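Lecture 7 notes. Example A: sequence first, then its structure tokens.
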Amino acid sequence: MSTHPVDTAMKGILLAGGSGTRLHPMTLAASKQLLPVYDKPMIFYPLSTLMLAGIRDIMIISTPADLPQFERLLGDGSRYGVRFTYRVQPTPDGIAQAFVIAGDWLDGAPCALALGDNLIFADHLGVLLRAAARRTEGATVFAYQVRDPERYGVVAFDDDGRACDLVEKPEQPPSNWAVTGLYFYDARVGELARRIQPSPRGELEITDLNRIYLEEGSLHVERLGRGCAWLDAGMPDSLMQAGLFVQTIQSRQGMLVGSPAEVAFRMGYIDADQLRAIATTMGKTELGRLLHELANGEVPR
């Protein structure tokens, strides 16, 4: 399925911090977001999601120890036709802290935030993302049904199907609809994030930011239904499930999942020669072969 570039003033933040304690001892030596999900580093998947939304100006936020590794992996973004900026999160003080850290860089621009351990897959995902990126007022979040909603921020709906409440990691979840790690906000997000007070956990909670939009009636909740997959790869079981999911899609359908190079090509950010050059750097890997086929027009655009 081909896509086309989208003009958007929206910027993107990719939050790849934290200590990854749920994945110890693996994350004692490497950032969680650098661990492999099948054939790509974990961070490639949310990065591809932001790019698919038409966002080309992206800040990567990580720990002081891990940030140089992301710079080495991703560079300045020019190979993908985008621009990367890097900034440190000294301590993991909550997801909403990202907007405080990036406040001067945002400079009043609307922004999307993606968590570095989240993978979202759907055939129509690009349409949903670009619609959210074009929305000029309010915020958009994506909800997904899960069996263990107590692990997440949870959204409740009224009898008319409208979002009516948001609760962070509730002991008694009001629904099984979890808010995924992908958020779109209007130009007020930097200002609103600075109003949030730390929660009892000592963190600036993204749920508190979302609740501001909910209470003013400008929070749009997009429910991801059948045909969509959302995977939080932050624990050993979910990390393995994510890898098996990607392996199944790619090997059965010959369709790439979570490849920034593929998205850049399909979005028109790079041309076939640039894609071919990226594929060549991957040697004789299956990923390199699939990118060569795409550059050579051997798979549908």
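Example B, a different protein, same format:
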Amino acid sequence: MTSAELPAPYGEGVAAPGSAAHASDPAKRPGRIRLHHLQQAKDEGRRFAMLTAYDQYAAQVFDEAGVEVLLVGDSAANNVLGHATTLPITLDEMILFSRTVSLAARRALVVADLPFGSYEVSAEQAVESAVRLLKEGLVHAVKMEGSAQYADTVRALVKAGIPVMAHIGFTPQSEHALGGYRVQGRGQTAERLRDDALILAGAGAFCVLMEMVPADVAREIDAALQVPTIGIGAGSGTTGQVLVWQDMAGLRGGRAATFVKQYADLRGTLSDAARTFADEVRSGTFPGPEHSF
């Protein structure tokens, strides 16, 4: 193995995650992003990116683009499978999506959600579910929604050798209990959210994701934690940022959430391509001689 293939910071001239060289020069990216690379980014004041991925082509594209973390989210339920919420997706379905992404990603750290119903009963249930995601889904870590009440579960997972990303703030699996999609951590609940983050990190979570949290609260939590944070709808003060890729690339139709920035109009591009294809088929233009044997 040459030095160029060694993970940062071990290989000479290999750029660290979150650096400009890492993003612009594929040859200088580490062989595989590991947990300590994300921690290094936090320690050195750098930032990193995370996108959801559910299939091999998206995973390959984002991996080659230098996105440090790929999240196989339970959001596959409402972004791939057609459900209205994340709740219906099963562990078996998550394993299938996870394995597809893990086999395609060469450099990115792959994290998978523990879906609703796969960890709430007991720490033992959580460990069993997470083991399947690592063993069958081939992911490198799991993400688990929940407050400080899941600290013992985090400890059990970490004890079993399973890295855990904690998810606080708005937790979609609890949308019915939370009264719908609402910002969390406003007013007097900000201190409780901070306590949740500290307790979960203290239990062994390598990272804390905050969703739909006021920017000033998320910034204070990031400053209070030694581990990196990731934000979605949590302002710019977190170590990393994540978006659902269909939102980021403009594939989803309808109104986007306030925190989404659309970097492309993939829905429009695909629509134009499909319309042109259909028109050419109807007119007899396609297939032409060059497309025939």
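Note on Example B: Residues 118 and 129 are 6 Å apart (CA to CA). The chain has twelve helices and eight strands.
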